[in-house]
Design brief:
By secondary structure, this protein is an all-alpha fold.
Length: 245
C-alpha cells in the first residue's frame, strides 16, 4: 500500500512541474490511479484478523453440572414448600375454628344469657339469612346451629384454641353431638393421640368402639382418670385398647 501511495505522489509531482503528460491524460491517469489507490487501501484495511480461540466447556458438560446442582437442592425445596402448605392449612383451620366458636359464643350469650331462648331459633334463622347472603353457604342456618352447639359444649376459649391446632372443624362438628361427656372425651383424645382422620373417626363411631372397649364398663371415676392420662401423657392404657369379647 505504501508503494501505491508513493506512485500517486510521483505522478502528481510530474504534473505540477510540467511533465510530458497533457492535461487530458493527466486527468484520466489521476482518476484511474485514485480508484486503484482506494481499492488497495480498502483491501488492506479490511484484511481478516485471526480469531482468538477461547476454550469454553461444552454444552453437555454445563448441562450435566447444572443438573447435579439442582438435584442436590430440589429435595430441600420440596420439603420447604410442603411444610409451608401444612403450616398454612393448620393456620387457616385454626382461624376458622376460632371464628366459628366466637360466632357461636356470641349467639349463645345473646339467646340464652339474655333470656331470649324462646326466640332462639328465629334469631338463628334471621342471622343466617343475612350472613349467607353476604358470605355464602358456610353461614347457613344449619352451620350456625353447629357453631352454637360448639360454644355450648366448649365454654373455655383456651381449650378451643388448643383443639383448633390439633383437630379440624369437621372432627369437632362430629364430636360435639356426642351427649355423654366421657364418651366424647374418649373419642376426642383418641383423635388427637392416634391422628385419626375424620373418616376414621366416623367409622369408629359407627362401630361403637367406645362401647366395645373394656374401659366403657369401668366406673366413671376410673374412666376419667384413664382419659386424663391419655390427654396428659398421650399413653394408651390396656383398658383403652383391649375390647370385651
Amino acid at each position: 500500500m505504501e508503494a501505491t501511495i508513493a506512485g500517486y505522489f510521483l505522478v502528481h509531482e510530474n504534473i505540477v512541474h510540467g511533465s510530458r503528460f497533457s492535461s487530458e491524460h493527466t486527468a484520466t491517469y489521476r482518476g484511474q490511479h485514485s480508484i486503484h489507490l482506494l481499492k488497495q487501501i480498502t483491501k488492506d484495511t479490511h484484511m481478516p484478523q485471526k480469531a482468538t480461540e477461547i476454550n469454553l466447556p461444552s454444552i453437555d458438560a454445563q448441562t450435566g453440572k447444572i443438573d447435579r446442582i439442582a438435584s442436590t437442592i430440589i429435595g430441600d425445596i420440596r420439603d420447604l414448600i410442603n411444610q409451608a402448605k401444612s403450616e398454612l392449612a393448620t393456620t387457616v383451620n385454626s382461624a376458622l375454628t376460632l371464628l366459628y366458636w366466637h360466632i357461636g359464643r356470641r349467639i349463645y350469650i345473646e339467646v340464652l344469657k339474655g333470656k331470649r331462648a324462646e326466640y332462639g331459633e328465629q334469631i338463628v334463622v334471621a342471622l343466617a339469612q343475612q350472613l349467607e347472603a353476604e358470605y355464602g353457604r358456610g353461614f347457613s342456618t344449619k352451620n350456625l346451629r353447629h357453631m352454637l352447639r360448639f360454644a355450648e359444649i366448649f365454654e373455655a376459649e383456651k381449650i378451643v384454641y388448643a383443639l383448633s391446632r390439633q383437630l379440624s372443624w369437621t372432627h369437632l362438628r362430629s364430636l360435639i353431638y356426642i351427649e355423654d361427656p366421657l364418651k366424647r372425651e374418649f373419642y376426642l383424645e383418641m383423635c388427637r393421640s392416634e391422628g385419626w382422620s375424620t373418616r376414621t373417626l366416623q367409622n369408629r363411631l359407627d362401630s361403637m368402639l367406645f362401647e366395645r372397649t373394656a374401659l366403657s364398663r369401668k366406673p366413671t371415676e376410673l374412666l376419667a382418670v384413664e382419659l386424663a392420662t391419655l390427654r396428659d401423657q398421650e399413653a394408651l392404657s390396656p383398658n383403652l385398647v383391649l375390647k370385651d369379647p
